[in-house]
């Protein structure tokens, strides 16, 4: 072909190839999930469990580590991208709380050491054989659910509750305005609960003299219930 003999054709072709390959490479970097460094994982575990971390390894996107705390040894697995704890198993040592369930006061003390949020609710779940405390913490208008081993006090998981949904008929901001019509004050937290009829918001407001939790329908905006704190 005559076009192949033109002096500008080959340099232009090479440029197009380089741009295409470079675009694919950059695209792969943008879509690849960032893995947390082992230093970050070690710091996260030490802060979460207040113990020493040993034998930190990573395989197939999961960090594995051994934690020593209060003469007890635990093996933990952590998601390398999100830092979420996938499993925690005690493999050695008796530990202070191996046979006795910690009190709510002890759990509150442990929570206060690691969190700046306010404890809204604590419940003990013994249905699965191994007792677990579920603690609800409010901070920055969010509610975080923390699950802790009731015998050791180790944090098993932390999850921020949903505060709204995408394209909601009644937005989080609108739901707060509806609640403020009933009670003026500081919003402690907002959570969203999914249901078959559209879901609802739970909003806790701390007023000057009263405190209440409002249940507001996410489609109609109707106040379904108000629980006043005596």
UniProtKB/TrEMBL annotation:
Pfam families: PepSY
Domain annotation PepSY: ranges: 102-158, 170-226
Highest rank taxon of the organism: Bacteria
InterPro entries the UniProt entry points to: PepSY
Protein name: Membrane protein YkoI
């Amino acid at each position: 072909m005559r076009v192949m003999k033109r002096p500008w054709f080959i340099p232009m072709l090479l440029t197009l190839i380089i741009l295409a390959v470079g675009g694919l490479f950059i695209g792969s970097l943008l879509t690849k999930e960032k893995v947390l460094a082992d230093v970050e994982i070690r710091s996260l575990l030490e802060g979460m469990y207040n113990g020493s971390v040993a034998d930190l390894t990573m395989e197939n996107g999961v960090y594995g580590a051994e934690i020593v705390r209060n003469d007890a040894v635990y093996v933990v697995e952590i998601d390398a991208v999100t830092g979420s704890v996938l499993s925690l198993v005690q493999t050695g040592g008796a530990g202070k709380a191996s046979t006795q369930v910690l009190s709510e006061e002890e759990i509150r003390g442990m929570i206060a050491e690691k969190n700046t949020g306010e404890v809204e609710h604590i419940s003990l779940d013994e249905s699965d054989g191994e007792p677990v405390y579920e603690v609800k913490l409010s901070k920055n208008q969010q509610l975080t659910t923390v699950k802790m081993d009731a015998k050791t006090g180790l944090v098993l998981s932390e999850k921020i509750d949903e505060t709204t949904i995408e394209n909601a008929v009644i937005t989080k901001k609108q739901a707060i305005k509806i609640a403020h019509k009933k009670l003026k004050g500081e919003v402690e937290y907002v959570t969203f609960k999914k249901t078959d009829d559209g879901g609802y918001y739970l909003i806790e407001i701390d007023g000057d003299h009263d405190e209440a939790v409002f249940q507001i329908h996410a489609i109609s905006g109707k106040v379904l219930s108000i629980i006043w704190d005596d």
